[in-house]
């Protein structure tokens, strides 16, 4: 009877590592920004710029900034606001594509006829903060209640800049207190909801600022280690580490 093939352990581990790299998918995010404070847009993800095949249509959240996960097969996108749409724009093969929406404009279509479009500027040079980078980010701000002896743990939020992996807010209906949000955040894997600068802190805990600080792009995943106590203005910082997308690169 033939003996089973036994491979050396280093070779087995190497094969497993190669397999995981093949199966891993890059994080791809579309960021959309506009001067309009209440932007109601829909995004059509396309197979490519020349195709009208729509893989998925998704609405934005209604603010002046939003971000969406890009479907794996999508290579282009078209953004509609009311009756106007951008021309299809290329999407970066990995990382972040930022589209800045502008004013209505007239261009010529393929037949030389005037066509009304929504102008846009596309940027694909948005560098993601590397996995393993750690430091402090601005987590959010608490509403002052005017009481001198108020309990900070009972204050509610006026802004929050991290969300659950599903993109659901940490404070449903903006009603959860500091204590409730801390329990949802500390020790958890969350996603950044707006580009945040990753800061360092000195020995006293004071936040330091440097031109070399990295930016965590919207949609990136972080592991939240702890939250600082609110400062006198109600601002809260979180100590985080940038981590991989679940199912992505280990």
Structural class label: mainly beta
- Helix amount: under 10%
Counting H and I runs of at least 4 residues, what is the number of helices?
A: 2
- What's the helix-strand series? HEEEEEEEEEEEEHEEEEEEE
β-strand percent reads: 35-45%
Q: If strands are numbered along the chain, what order do they take across the biggest sheet?
A: 11-10-19-18-13-12
- Total beta-strand segments: 19
Spatial shape: elongated
List low-pLDDT spans. 1-24
Q: How can the largest sheet be summarized?
A: 6 strands, antiparallel
Mean pLDDT: 86
- State the distance separating the first and last CA atoms: 40 Å
Alpha carbon gyration radius: 22 Å
How would you characterize the overall build of this protein?
Strand 5 (76-81) and strand 6 form a beta hairpin. Helices cover 9% and strands 42% of the residues. The radius of gyration is 22 Å and the shape is elongated. With 250 residues, it is mainly beta. The strands form five sheets. A six-stranded antiparallel sheet has the order 11-10-19-18-13-12. The chain contains two helices and 19 strands.
Features of the shown structure:
mainly beta; 2 helices; 250 residues; 9% helix; 6-stranded antiparallel β-sheet
Short characterization:
The protein has helices spanning 9-23, 178-185, and strands at 28-33, 42-46, 54-59, 65-69, 76-81, 84-85, 89-90, 95-108, 114-126, 134-142, 157-160, 162-163, 189-192, 196-198, 200-201, 207-208, 214-216, 221-227, 235-243. The chain is mainly beta.
């Amino acid at each position: 009877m033939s003996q089973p093939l036994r491979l050396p352990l280093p070779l087995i581990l190497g094969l497993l590592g190669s397999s995981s790299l093949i199966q891993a998918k890059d994080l791809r995010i579309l960021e959309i920004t506009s001067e309009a404070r209440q932007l109601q847009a829909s995004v059509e993800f396309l197979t490519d710029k020349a195709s009208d095949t729509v893989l998925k249509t998704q609405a934005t959240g209604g603010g002046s900034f939003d971000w969406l996960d890009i479907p794996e097969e999508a290579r282009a996108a078209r953004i509609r606001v009311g009756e106007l749409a951008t021309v299809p724009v290329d999407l970066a093969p990995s990382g972040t594509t930022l589209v800045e929406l502008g004013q209505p404009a007239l261009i010529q279509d393929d037949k030389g006829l005037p066509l009304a479009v929504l102008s846009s500027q596309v940027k694909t040079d948005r560098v993601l903060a590397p996995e393993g980078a750690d430091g402090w980010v601005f987590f959010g701000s608490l509403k002052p209640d005017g009481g001198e002896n108020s309990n900070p743990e009972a204050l509610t939020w006026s802004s929050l800049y991290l969300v659950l992996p599903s993109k659901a807010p940490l404070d449903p209906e903006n009603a959860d207190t500091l204590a409730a949000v801390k329990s949802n955040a500390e020790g958890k894997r969350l996603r950044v909801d707006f580009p945040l600068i990753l800061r360092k802190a000195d020995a006293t805990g004071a936040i330091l600022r440097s031109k070399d600080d990295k930016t965590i792009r919207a949609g990136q995943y972080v592991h939240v280690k702890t939250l600082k106590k609110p400062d006198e203005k109600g601002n809260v910082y979180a100590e985080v580490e940038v981590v991989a997308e679940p199912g992505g690169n280990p």
